[in-house]
Amino acid sequence: MRHVVVGSTHFSMFILKAIREADPQGIIYTVERSPEVAEIMSRQVSGKPVHGLLTEQSTLENAGIRIADTFFALTDSDALNANLVELSKKVYSVPLTISIANNPKNVDLLYKSGSDYVLSPVDYVTGEVKALLSIDKPSRFSLPQNIGMDFIVMRPVNSIEAIDSIFSFISKERDVKDVMVTSATNGSIKKIEELAKGDFLVIAVRKTSSKELLESLEEILKKSSGGSKK
Fold first, then answer.
1. Transmembrane stretches, by residue range (predicted)?
2. Domains of the chain, earliest start first
3. HSE (CB half, 13 Å, CA atoms) of 36?
């Protein structure tokens, strides 16, 4: 396969190495304004360096974009990434366009610009932190848009009394596709009826319904908490 990678953010080198591992025989073009940076990037993955203005068609064509299988927009500017994926998709019809969202608020912008897949490192990190600290409060762990699913995660401690109400509610929700319980100590999967205080309750739900489900669970917990105080 032929891969065109534009930009040199902190994540670019990791992504380049991932491309090489996934496609050992692939041709990787690394594109940057600076010839030195393009050379450094390409050297790490036995690629082909190209330098020039990133949105210039001549620069991209020197990187073989007309016959590219994938295009990666990895600059530190989401606006520039949006311009790049729009160019790669609408002008050159690259089959698979991938961009990075430096600000998670720009994920939708990048999809609308033509990105088939958006990498959002900040979303992944904040999602993990919320999941780790989600004691008695459900949090949404957003998965990539193309997967079409999200996780709702919580660790019931003081809210353990509300679990029956939660299970009763989600059992009626068609968009809930799976429910798991994992041990907080070693991550092992447990039977649902073995849920103990502090364990992780993980709910897999369709992305289109995850926000609504999260709000419903918060309301159940709120009512349970209010009732326990009386």
1. none
2. 2-119 (3.40.50.720), 124-229 (3.30.70)
3. 0
